[in-house]
Amino acid sequence: MKLKTLIGDYPVTRQFRTRTERFEFAQFQGSVASAFKRVVRDLEFDVAEMAIMTFLVAKAFGKPYRLLPFVVMARFQHPYLVYNSERGDLRPEDLHGKRIGVRSYSVTTGAWIRGILANDYGVDLGSVDWVTFEDAHVAEFRDTTKRAPAGKQIIQMLIDGELDAILGEKSDHPDLKPLFADVAAEEGGWFAKHKVVPINHMMVVSHALSDKHPEAVREVHRLLAASADASASSLRFNADEVRRSLELIIDYTAQQGLIPRAFAVDELFDDVTRALL
Questions:
Q1: DSSP result, 45-72
Q2: Residue 198 per-residue DSSP state
Q3: What average pLDDT score do residues 189-211 get?
Q4: Which run of H or of E encompasses 273?
Q5: 211: alpha, beta or left, given left = phi > 0 and alpha = psi -120 to 50?
Q6: For the structural domain made of 2-75+197-274, what CATH number should be given?
Q7: What is the C-alpha to C-alpha distance for residues 228 and 242, in angstroms, rounded to an integer?
Q8: Coil, strand, or helix at residue 61?
Q9: Phi and psi, residue 205, nearest 5°
């Protein structure tokens, strides 16, 4: 069986076997992130890496994918909120009414950081003047943000003072600093409170593959797990850790109006994939 597959190059996926006696995984060549739109718009992949926010929004619009319990990318989000220190100090409580840029309102890092700001620092997200640069991966999703002028770049707008802060970006520019001055301390305190490592990307499988060929889904998961076991990566999530991270990002996503309601974690899986947790 030949399965069209989208998997990025990460320590946990680097030793993923692309061929076995029963399966061949025809891998997409190119930027994985640029192909997320093709996953949820063209529905062309049997097995795919997907940003968790893309998956949640896609589920809200009935896209035929189910979550596979394998994390390919996770990280603390605090370093990805940046401001221009040349324009004065900025703290989370100063963000009310500010003009903040994010590549797309539905990007995963943006949703995590907005959730942190709202729930841990009391920032009124509705008071912020959000500026975006791209459409969401899911074509049907619409937001009420302002779109940056054509040709504008998010980092340069921050440097030029056209934005007060940006989400989801880092920069080597000497004037651009993380809004959280002691990132390590913030991350440690947040983890102690929530016991969550924020998931960015997981794997999904198509409804058709799971319904018609559950043995293929189990084999994909086995091969991914074998690749992770053979790597030196410390990225490991047990079932409880996956659930805690998913529960929190679902809550944040619903709070921010990106999905119509907070899904139960079990709704993201089917009987085949849930058994692999």
A1: -SEEEEEHHHHHHHHHTT-SEEEEEEEE
A2: P
A3: 98
A4: helix 271-274
A5: alpha
A6: 3.40.190.10
A7: 16
A8: coil
A9: -130, 150
